Each structure stands twice: as structure tokens, then as C-alpha cells.
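Researcher: Next entry in the queue.
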Amino acid sequence: MKWQATTILARLGKAVGLRRKWRDSSSIRRAMRLAQRASEGEMPAAWFRAYERALAALNEEDRFRFTKLTVDLDPSALDVAQRGLASGAPSSAVFGLIRAWKDLTDAERELALGPVREAKEGPVVLAGAPARQMDDTTCGAAAMAIMLMVGDPFVGIWVASGRSFFHYLPPEVARIPRRAWMMTPQERWEGLQKSIHVDTVRRGFLLLVPWPKSLGTPPWRVDNHTRFLGLRFHGGIVDDTDETDLDAMITRATAALIDGIPVPIYASGDSSRGLDTVVPRHVVLLTHILDGGFLAYEPASAAQHFVSERQLREGGKGLDALGHWSHISWMVLPKAKPNA
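Model: Structure for this entry, 340 residues:
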């Protein structure tokens, strides 16, 4: 009989009365309510709510300057300016980006707008460099880096050209040693992956000692190291042999994506492929909702692939969208506020 480690853990947890809050009916209802309000225009998407909070936090002078600088921007430039402010960057860097927008290269503008903004299958390219994981251990770091660029235009611009504004560098870039600063988009993309990977495996085992780098990114470090619009995240085991888990997973992922929040998921194999495949092995990033399923950025192929709800429910066969793995075993979700 085929089995997966996450299935066993989920069933053991259920047997001893442990709750997995991400699949509670109350949590699902909150997520659905938030998504419905966003889809019906009753409230803006997550990035715009983050922008409004950041704008309100500015002093009166800086709010006036931001409004004055953005009043005549075209929609693309305005989107980048608002997401730049929402990212948590200092106002000086945001003002510098706005002033420099008309002089940015096409590659810089493209990545400032986001690397996976188009809902279509095909290669993901970063200023000419394939958005491929740099080695077998950095699928998690690559997925986190793409998610980071969706929410932070300063990271995308840096990958494209190395440019910064008023000496501001996002934390993941600032951690890269100066002697290792890269000259090409490919080198910067790999440097960003390495920075994220090193940080996520540090104190990765019980928050006390480093997680072995050769084992990739531990699932419980993706949730608390994912930087996106100031949101908090939590991870959860998925038992894809349980219809309740699958229904909850699809509903929660759909709600997050409607709200503009990508969803990292871990894929695995099962015992039929060997004992080393029964644990979470590969990270992909759900980026868009399409009819009957999702679009996922898969870092080994540096591409977005479609995966249907039916395929997720059936499992058992290697899927392109999951890097040729067959089961969902872990997902990372935004924490829903009780009043959402």
C-alpha cells in the first residue's frame, strides 16, 4: 500500500486530538469571505490595503510629496510606486524610484511590475535570465524569491540591473556580501537565492541549530521567512488522501490568490517511489487561478505550468507543475485576521 509521511503525521495528529487550524471551518469561512469581498470590489486586494496602511503611516509632508509625485503617473508606474511603498521601503527610496521611472530600462520596468504577472503558461525570464533554481537545494529559495519580487519592486529592479535608490537595499539583498555582488542578472538572481536559502536554514532545526543545507528549505521556515506586504504566514501539513484536506487546500489557495497573495506549496512522492520521496521534497508557487485549476511557477523548469484541481486530487502521477512530483504535502498561507 502506498503511503506518505505527511499522511501518517496528519492521521496521528487527528488521533490524539491535534487541530490543524488552517483547515478549520471557521478559518475557511474567513478566507472565503475575504476573497468574496475582494472579488466583488467591496475591498481592495492585499497589496493595496498594505499601500493604504503605509501611506497613512507617512508624515504629512511625505504624504503630500507622494501624492504630488504620483498624480500624473501612468497606471504601470503608479502600480509600482504604490507597491514600492507597500513593501516597507523608506519613503526616500520610493520617491527616488518614482523620479527615475521614465529613465528605467525595459528590463527594469518589467521586473518592477512583477516576474509572473501574466497568467499564462511558459518560461519565466528575469531580464534575460531563466528563473531557474540554482541547484537541487534551492527550489524553496527560488519560489520565495519570485514571491518576494511580486510584492517588492525594489528586489526586481535590483535583479535586473543592480540599481538601488537612495542607497536602500531590501533585506534579502543587503545580506549579500559586498565582495560577492554580481554583475549580471543571472548572477544576481543566484545571489538572491543563496541569500534566502542561507537565512532560512540558519537555526532551521527547532530554531536552535542550522538545518543541513543539502536538505533544501525546511517547510516550517518558509512560513516565517516569507516577506510579502508585511503579512504573517503559517504552514500546514496537507494529507491529499483526505477529501476534507483537499477541499480546504483548494479553497484556501483560491482565496489567497483572489486577494493577490501567491501560495508556496511543497510536493512529494510516495512509498512506491522510495522512502526518500515520502517527505516534502520540492517547492512550487501558485501564482494565478485559471478555469478548473491553478498556474504554478516551478523553479526547476523556470516556467509556469497549469495544474488542474482534478490532477491535485488524483495524485499518483508526476506533474509538470509540481516538478514531476505527484502529491501536495505542505502549504504556506497568510494568517487570516479574526475580523476579516
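Model: Residues 185-201 form the longest helix (17 residues).
Researcher: Noted, moving on.
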